[in-house]
Design a protein that fits this description.
By secondary structure, this protein is α+β, with helices and mostly antiparallel strands. It is built from four helices and seven strands, in the order βααβββαβαββ. The protein has a seven-stranded mixed β-sheet, sandwiched between helices.
Length: about 170
């Protein structure tokens, strides 16, 4: 719902391309800093050419890695990526690699729309379950994942600074 009481139009979701890399990085950094940057020693990350090039490479990967962006009024408002689990390495376990929404689009349905696409493709790619990692203490992210059906499974990494959530996909 917009401040004037009218409904937000749902975002348009499309496959991401390497040409989206700069905007994806800006959203990644802005959502990182606003969401959980203060919880980590890497607060206030900035956009760099190296980071843009790394994302350009990531967005060019072929299946089973997949990336999408959400657009509103011609601008990218968020993005999501999936693939096989990297930690633990298990080709049978899917992973929600990254989901990030521009802070100006938080609570507008962009995250839910992106999550829906990611879950649909995790199922289509044959995964029965998937994982996602998030930062310990990131209450906004934890609440979002739990509202979307993810549950903490007890996995931790990075000396306990990251928590793992699991999602049963067999019921979707």
């Amino acid at each position: 719902m917009k401040p004037d009481g009218t409904r937000e139009l749902p975002p348009t979701i499309r496959s991401a391309t390497p040409a989206d890399a700069e905007m994806v990085v800006r959203i990644y950094i802005d959502s990182w800093n606003a969401g959980f940057g203060a919880l980590l020693s890497q607060a206030d990350r900035t956009v760099t050419p190296v980071l843009i090039e790394r994302w350009r490479h990531d967005l060019a990967q072929l299946a089973p890695h997949r990336w999408w962006v959400a657009e509103r009024m011609g601008s990218i408002a968020g993005f999501v990526g999936i693939g096989p689990s990297r930690d633990p390495v298990d080709a049978r376990l899917g992973e929600l690699d990254t989901i990030a929404v521009d802070p100006s689009h938080w609570h507008t349905g962009v995250g839910k729309a992106l999550m829906s696409v990611a879950l649909r493709y995790l199922v289509a790619d044959g995964y029965d379950e998937a994982i996602v990692w998030t930062v310990e203490g990131y209450e906004r992210g934890t609440a979002f994942y739990e509202a979307m059906g993810w549950c903490r499974d007890g996995g931790i990494r990075d000396e306990g600074r990251q928590l793992r959530f699991q999602r049963d996909l067999s019921t979707l």
